[in-house]
Amino acid sequence: MREVLLNPSAGYYSTKGKVFGTGGDFVTAPEIGQIFGELLAVWCINELQKFNYDGKIQLVELGPGKGTLMQDMLRVFEKLGLSKDRISVHLVEMSPLLQQVQAERLCNGKSHRLSIDEDDSHVQEGTTNSGVSVRWYSDIVDVPKGFSIVIANEFFDALPVHVFCKKAKEDSAAWKEVLVDIDPKQSEPGFRFIQSSKATPYSVVFGKRFDSKAHLLKERTRLEISFEAEQIVQNIAKRFEKHGGFGLIIDYGHEGDKTDTLRSFKNHQLHDPLQDPGSADLTADVDFGFLKHFLEQDETAITLGPVPQGVFLEAMQGSTRLKSLLNATADENYKVILQQGYEELTNPSKMGDRFKLLSVFPSSLKSFLQASNKVIGFEPKE
Predict the structure, then answer these.
(1) Taking CA atoms, which of 2, 24, 65, 87 is between 20 and 30 Å from 95?
(2) For residue 358, what pLDDT band results from cuts at 50, 70 and 90?
(3) 81/95 Cα distance (integer angstroms)
(4) Spatial separation of the C-alpha atoms in residues 73 and 51, rounded to whole Å
(5) What are the two backbone dihedrals, phi and then psi, of residue 178, each rounded to the nearest 5 degrees?
(6) CA distance 351 to 290
(7) d(Cα 323, Cα 311) in Å, to the nearest integer?
(8) Which residue, 160, 175, 179, is CA-closest to 231?
(9) CB neighbours of 37 closer than 8 A, spacing ≥ 6?
(10) Residue-wise over 149-162: b if at least 16 C-beta within 10 A, else e?
């Protein structure tokens, strides 16, 4: 999965110029309408007040896509009084091609690619028109330590997953890993999925660590798990604990009720994930049950959610913002675009229920948040 998406010479994100939008293979929420990014920014500013913090803020985005989400968020941050001297942007992006796309949007293409021999950990830097510093990194571990607001929109679904399966009622030693193999039955070179005939290193590790955690496995006999996601969210949790901050994870996913979600998209249609690797997107639904466990297992962070995207946007007064935008334009075509976009984002039969949000805070705020200080969009149901 990693090779298919990120191989420097043949990977999907490394070589395909247009992957987002109607002309690409899929559409993300920020591309549908500005309301999405604006409301995320308002939520961040509201939660920032709970920290009584007036120092410098790092806006960290994992997998920034075309840079649209960060562009919309920065507009709100600046409008609400957070100056360029207080904000810096840190984008974690492995694809050099997408780094350039993001630089075009955020810095009008005026970015400077650094030599890999330089001591600094960022690979590219630039400045927005309003003077906000923007830096790019290939790994979150390279982002400087400091108070951070971390946003990950449709990032974790693209991380490589391991697939494990076993027969019902078998013990932990019975977990087998699903692997990719050469298909000998095809006349042309091709691939097939197979089940390992014996234990693999990852299946042994998985069995020892998770077979006793019934609340995570939920008697499933097949599941997908990303150990890379575990490393990343643990880095986020420790970052928040030591240096302060909070974050939002937005993705399509489930809480342990799905078993086989690995799939491929090409031209907005389902595609055989083993056919022409590198020509189409690969993705797997995020298991929020595992993600919450990874974030909280060392008691460095707490999570709230996940909540459906439609519920969150409505709680953030999305309908009110939509009316404001409609009243501000006389362009009837644009009004239709705005209305259809918000419908796409919030309708439960579209993105409203399938996409979910998970909020992350340092564990030191646990008692504070669980008292009378509700987190907008994540309030428990009455």
Answers:
(1) 87
(2) very high
(3) 32
(4) 20
(5) -85, 130
(6) 22
(7) 18
(8) 160
(9) 30, 68, 69, 70, 71, 72, 73, 76
(10) bbbbbbbbbbbbbb
| Separation CA 302–CA 362 (nearest Å) | 6
Contact 125, 34 (CB under 8 A): no
Q: How confident is the model at residue 341 (pLDDT cuts 50, 70, 90)?
A: very high
The 3 state secondary structure assigned to 49-92 is HHHCCCCCEEEEEECCCCCHHHHHHHHHHHHCCCCCCCEEEEEE
DSSP letter at 381 equals P
Can you read off the two tokens belonging to residue 256? 């342990």
Cα angle, residue 53 at apex, residues 106 and 55 outer, rounded to 5°: 55
Q: Are 145 and 242 in contact (CB under 8 A)?
A: yes
CB 145, CB 239: distance < 8 Å: yes
Residue indicated by tokens 């990014």 = 37
Q: Where are the alpha helices (DSSP H) in the chain?
A: 2-6, 12-15, 29-32, 34-48, 68-79, 96-107, 201-210, 214-217, 227-243, 288-296, 309-315, 318-327, 332-346, 351-354, 366-370
pLDDT per residue over 113-146, tens digit each?
776 555 678 999 999 999 999 999 999 999 999 9
Question: Is the CB of residue 55 less than 8 Å from the CB of residue 17?
Answer: no
Q: Which residues contact 204 (CB under 8 A, 6 or more apart)?
A: none
Instruction: Work out the widest C-alpha separation in the chain, in whole angstroms.
Output: 66
Cβ atoms of residues 177 and 162 within 8 Å: yes
At 189 the pLDDT is: 81
Half-sphere exposure of 62 (CA within 13 A, CB side): 26
* Listed residue (325, 319, 360, 359) closest to 343, CA to CA: 319
Task: Give the length of the chain.
Answer: 382
Q: Token pair 């694809």 is at which residue?
A: 95
Whether the predicted model's global pTM rises above the 0.70 cut: yes
Tell me the CA distances in angstroms from 106 to 101, 111, 136, one per residue in order: 9, 9, 12
